TrEMBL record:
This is histidine kinase. It is an enzyme of class 2 (transferase). GO terms for molecular function: phosphorelay sensor kinase activity. It comes from Spirosoma oryzae. Residues 218-403 form the Histidine kinase domain. Its EC number is 2.7.13.3. PROSITE patterns: HIS_KIN.
């Protein structure tokens, strides 16, 4: 939910509570004031009644023409003096309905006899007045609430317009384009300071990105050249017939170490480029077809290890990613399945529109499954492995909205790619060795 919507919702809820409490309080205050006025008039009539009774030592209802306005009842015994106000309903035969009255009850002697006197005053006009006041108050408070809500929304929208403009420009900002982040100046101090901080941050990020990009490009070029030269010289030495057996073993160790260094350099540079988003052009790639083609290309290796390949290709699994990374993804998956398979084992490919699963037989690894996708983590001691294969797989999947899932059950290791972006790997059971 957006900040303005959340703010307006809180403001509306708070305003409704305040206005309801205000309306209730106003209603009660108006009712008390009107009742106080009615009771004051009843006390005046009480005084008139007592004055009339003292003067004439009798009472006649002839001066009063309002039906049921005064009712006198003799009281046989002594009572506690005082007065009491109550609400009561009296039948009105003119309107054929019960009419509300406010009643004052008190006791007074007339001609030596104690009487209970009840003086009543109609509340119809009072109730109508309260209803009119209440409806008017609710109407005006409702209009005021709507007006304040509308004004608050418009005002907030205008005040937060620079923030949303900044947000849209930050979203559209791309480090790879090389153009600086351009933000409109704002007259609001907080937004102006925010724009300054974001501009400086974007400039620093762009500078660091360009520096890292140049480093990876230079490292990729400059390091490969001497490594290739070392490998070439070592290959020439291996072919020499003048070497002793010990010298051949030493040179072979150097050759294997240089090859390992070359693979390690390529893997780390590839991870750095993926992290920096240096692979821009994405296409819809049929990963199922790429995987099957790579298995065909590695047929000699599969045959040498006496592996059986089977497949269940119901639908092609496609992803949006650069073709180079797609090739790297399937290559690492297949290399992992072959390298850590058993002699005479099996490889199975299962493909659908939503998942692509590559399963292989193998021993249960001893590495913690939660660390298999980390860099330089290997599930078994393997001289050929540099521990970056599954790290590259994870990084590619995370960068291009693919999920990677691992399961081990009954001697079968399964790596599954899914369309849904998983965010983190789900690892069940035992681990699998990383390439």
């Amino acid at each position: 939910m957006k900040l303005l919507a959340q703010t307006n919702r809180i403001y509306l809820g708070f305003s409704l509570v305040v206005y309801l409490l205000t309306a209730l309080a106003f209603y009660q205050i108006s009712r008390l004031l009107i009742y106080d006025e009615v009771e004051s008039r009843l006390r005046v009539e009480k005084q008139d009644f007592e004055a009339y009774a003292r003067t004439h030592n009798a009472w006649a209802s002839s001066p009063y023409f309002v039906e049921n306005k005064i009712e006198i009842t003799p009281v046989p015994g002594p009572v506690q003096p005082g007065e009491a106000f109550v609400d009561t309903l009296i039948y009105n035969h003119y309107d054929n309905e019960m009419t509300p009255f406010r009643q004052l009850t008190f006791f007074t002697p007339i001609h030596g006899q104690l009487y209970r006197v009840e003086i009543r005053k109609s509340l119809i006009q009072t109730y109508r007045l309260i209803e009119v006041i209440t409806v008017t108050m609710v109407l005006f408070l409702g209009l005021l609430l709507l007006g304040m809500f509308w004004f608050q929304s418009r005002l907030s929208g205008r005040l937060w317009l620079p923030f949303y403009d900044t947000l849209s420009r930050v979203k559209a900002f791309d480090l790879r384009q090389g153009s600086p982040l351009q933000l409109h100046p704002s007259s609001i101090t907080e937004f102006s300071e925010l724009n300054d901080v974001l501009t400086k941050m974007a400039d620093k990020m762009q500078h660091d990105y360009q520096g890292l990009k140049e480093f990876t490009e230079n490292a990729s070029h400059e390091m490969q050249t001497p490594l290739a030269l070392i490998n070439a010289k070592v290959e020439q030495l291996i072919q020499s017939s003048q070497l002793t057996e010990n010298q051949s073993d030493w040179i072979d160790g150097i050759y294997q170490a240089s090859r390992r260094m070359a693979r390690l350099n390529q893997g780390l540079l590839l991870l750095a480029k993926i992290d920096n988003g240096q692979f821009g052009d994405t296409h819809t790639v049929d990963l199922t077809a790429e995987l099957m083609q790579r298995l065909t290309d590695m047929d000699e290796v599969i045959t040498h290890k006496q592996l059986t390949v089977s497949s269940d290709l119901r639908e092609p699994f496609r992803g949006q990613l650069p073709p180079f990374l797609a090739d790297s993804l399937v290559t690492n998956l297949i290399s992992n399945a072959i390298r850590h398979n058993q002699s005479g084992g099996a490889i199975h490919v299962c493909s659908s529109a939503e998942t692509l699963a590559l399963s292989n037989t193998g021993f249960a690894p001893v590495t913690d499954p939660g660390t298999l996708f980390d860099r330089f983590k290997k599930g078994a001691a393997n001289a050929e492995s540099v521990g970056l294969g599954l790290a590259i797989v994870r990084q590619i999947c995370h960068s291009y909205e693919l999920g990677v899932d691992y399961q081990y059950q009954s001697g079968i290791h399964t790596l599954t790619l899914t369309r849904q972006f998983a965010g983190t790997e789900r690892v069940n059971g035992m681990g699998i060795a990383a390439s």
